Amino acid sequence: MIQNFFNYKVKIKDTPFKTEAGKKYENTVAISFLDENKKEIAYIELGFIDKEEIYQLIEQGKPVNLDHCYVENFSLVEYRESRNIEKKSYIKIHGFSAYNTFFDSRVVTDFSFAEFDDEYENFENAHFLNGAVSFQSAKFHQGGVNFSYTYFTDGNVDFSNVNFGDGEVNFKNSWFGTGHKNFQDAHFGNGDVLFVNTEFNDGDVTFVNVLFNSKRVTFKVARFGEGKIGFHFARFHCKELLFERTEFGDGKVDFRTTEFSDAKVSFNRAVFGNGEKSFEASQHKGGKLTFRKSIWGDGNISLEKVEFDNTILYLDNADFGKGNLSFNNSHILELSLKSCHLDYYVDLRLSKCKSIDLSDTIARDIIDIKPYDFPLEIGTINFVGMRLIGRIYIDWEINNIKKLIYSQKDANRREFAEQFRILKENFSTTGQYVDEDKAYVEFKRNELKADLKDALKKNPYSRIWEYPSYAFQWLVFDKVGLYATNPLRVLTSMLFGYIFFSLLYLVLPFFVDTKIVSSIGDPDKLGPVAVSFYHSAITFLTIGYGDYYPSGFFRWLSGLEGFVGLFLMSYFTVAFVRKILR
User: What would the mean pLDDT of 409-419 be, rounded to a whole number?
Assistant: First the structure.
């Protein structure tokens, strides 16, 4: 394929030309390809065939073999006019081949409404040197068509409403100049569709409302330039769809309401340019849709209202550039954003999602998960390893955070603890102090259990002291005061402690030789119950009037009660002041 030339010269010589297949032409066409300095960079000789000869072959129903020929101003519109045929009547072309054929036209090379027979149509290495190209509404039937290595100098190429039949459609390594590449309403049949390594260059590329029925459709390593890329309403009813390492260039990339059926779809390592990217309301029946290590450039990204109810969407290690990312009101079976850099606003308010993986992400802006105008049915969210520099808008009760975390099947206590710690710090930043306390309690509970498990795993004999230590911390730090987050819980614990010791003072004298003695002769004549509760009160609150003092075993019990009372009062003070200061 000859490309990157600035201009060309065509000279028709009287000498005959013979192709490698032995076909002879009366005249030879010499084409010189020039660079910007008018220096020849390539030279080629071809056979010359007049367009009228081609028209006669078509009219007579004979095979049209144009291999290694130069064709000037070919147009089926002109053919119809010269034969008084209606404008949109299909023209049947038999045995067509244009291998290494050079088409030249002042306006347009026109194959519109051409109907090729079932043989394999070959445009391999064809060059459309000048003018637009139109295959509008052409039919290729069963044989397939080969446009590999084809060069479209003028990028205004029209394949709209083409029926490519059930054979293979091959645009591998083809090259389009600047202009509108239009495949709107085209119909690809059961054969593979190959746009591998295709250069679309600048200009809009339209695949709007295109139907792909083949097993395999690939745009692998294809490159798009500046311009709108439209797959709006496209229907990929195929088994495999590949956009791996595809470069989309700058401009809007539009996959709105695209049907991906149940195809295995891969955009891995795809590179999107600067412009809006939209997959809004697209559909996928089930399976995997992957964008691993994709680069999205600058511009907003919309995956809103997508219908991926049975689809796992992988965006692991993706680079989203400068732009907002939205999954608002979408239905996705599982969403993975593992190891992504989320530098701008991310809307994760999905209507329905079994799991969201945010592990190892770096979030520098807002991640919005708090419901607004519709409920969220999210099963679980994984925050393990997240570096949260920005903020997460989420609510403990509305989002049911405990369920989001504890429903993770493969997570351990250490990972639970880490996630609650991340959320605790986030709630502190956003001023959700009640939610911060709840997250802190769950963090400490899981950390305590993780420490116990790690200690027992390291030394099985440590259970002798680890279990008592765990029980003490569970009782004192958790149950008594919820890790100093609930002053009322501490106050209630103080009340129960006071009553417990009071009952001991009342009951134990019936079983043990111990008692509470009055140092002033009991002037108020208090009964056993009053004495027990009074002595417990002045001991628990460390008042110590001295009018009643313990004797026997109660000396030790009173000392213990004094320590417990002092500890719980301090505990209450810490929890109370913590609440007030915030």
Answer: 94
